[in-house]
Design a protein that fits this description.
Layout lengths: L6 H51 L4 H26 L4 H20 L4 E3 L6 H6 L7 E14 L2 E15 L5 E15 L8 E4 L7 H14 L6 H6 L1 E4 L2 H7 L2 H14 L2 E6 L2 E6 L17 H15 L1 H4 L14
Length: 330
């Protein structure tokens, strides 16, 4: 049951409905792009001036300009932030809101009229933290571009997610790091189960405490499977050995390997008869890249393909196969 779209009809929709709107929006897109470049040049220029100022202070030239060094050091950051305000684009938020309302919404409906797209909503934070794939205490969490629907007999929802956590080193220095940035897909699983299971390819922590914790948890909860390629790529942890092997039949392991090859690094969790799939590759599904002309059909086509690829993971994992009516595994 492939999930595809008619590219000829998409082109017709683009020419008829999207292009007039995007031609009107393109000047603002160019203004935003120029503003981004100007900010970059301001940042580089301010940095060079600061470096030069510090060098002057510690060389023989310092005696010649020492009276002005302090004022220069204070003025450069001030001028940078003032200049940034002048070159910032006030149309960014309005542009994105209009793009999603007049382009993204009808594009999603073109892909499938039954899809429910909510630009300002996303996967709730409690579902993210409760699925078991991510163990860090979150510093911040944001999610948008929620798409809900049904593919065959499988209900699904997915959205962009950006989750960050904070670390503190031995000197008390705090650093904000990315926990996950990508698409989180949640859909019905086609086997009933009672436990909770997590599949990841990068579970081991790099800190000594994390390594100790991972060793204890990994050895006590590891699900042993009979697929050398699968076990080389993934760690599978869960609450029950027998049920874990029931979920990960030979064919399911082959499909997960295929999914890994298609999307790169993936994580999966199985809970409450649902499967959670974290895809790091697809991010900002329906936000336009300001470095790309708004009138570029190829970008719209790529956006539609990304959505279809995400939904097609249901086919890759063969989740429409009704296991409940079968007496044996697949």
């Amino acid at each position: 049951m492939p999930y595809e779209i008619d590219k000829t009809k998409l082109r017709a929709l683009f020419d008829r409905d999207f292009l007039p709107i995007l031609e009107e929006m393109e000047p603002y897109r160019r203004k935003k792009n120029r503003a981004n470049k100007a900010q970059m040049y301001l940042f580089i220029g301010a940095g060079l001036v600061m470096i030069a100022t510090v060098m002057i202070m510690f060389t023989g030239l310092g005696n010649m300009v020492s009276g002005n060094v302090f004022y220069v050091m204070c003025a450069v950051p001030f001028l940078f932030f003032v200049g940034r305000q002048f070159v910032s684009n006030p149309y960014n938020k309005d542009w994105t809101t209009r793009y999603k309302k007049e382009i993204a919404v009808p594009l999603v409906k073109f892909i499938n009229s039954e899809l429910d797209y909510q630009p300002s909503k996303g996967i709730p934070r409690d579902l993210y933290t409760g699925c078991g794939m991510f163990r860090h205490k979150l510093y911040s969490y944001s999610s948008e571009d929620l798409i809900k629907g049904k593919h065959g007999n499988v209900n699904f929802q997915f959205s962009d997610v950006v989750a960050k956590y904070e670390t503190t080193d031995n000197d008390g220095k705090r650093t904000v790091r990315t926990d996950f940035e990508g698409v989180l897909l949640i859909c019905d699983f086609n086997k009933a189960f009672n436990g909770e299971y997590v599949l990841t390819s990068d579970f081991r922590d790099s800190t000594w405490l994390g390594r100790f914790f991972d060793t204890v948890v990994h050895e006590s909860n590891e699900i042993k499977l009979e697929n050398p390629e699968f076990e080389q790529l993934f760690d599978l942890r869960g609450s029950d050995q027998v049920e874990g092997r029931y979920i990960f039949s030979h064919s399911m392991m082959d499909r997960v390997i295929k999914l890994q090859k298609e999307f790169g690094n993936i994580k999966m969790a199985f809970k409450n008869n649902q499967v959670y799939i974290a895809l790091s590759r697809h991010f900002d599904i329906l936000n336009h890249d300001f470095s790309v002309p708004a009138t570029d059909f190829a970008y719209i086509e790529k956006t539609a393909d990304r959505i279809c690829e995400i939904i097609a993971t249901i086919d890759t994992l063969n989740l429409n196969l009704d296991i409940w009516k079968r007496q044996t595994g697949d």
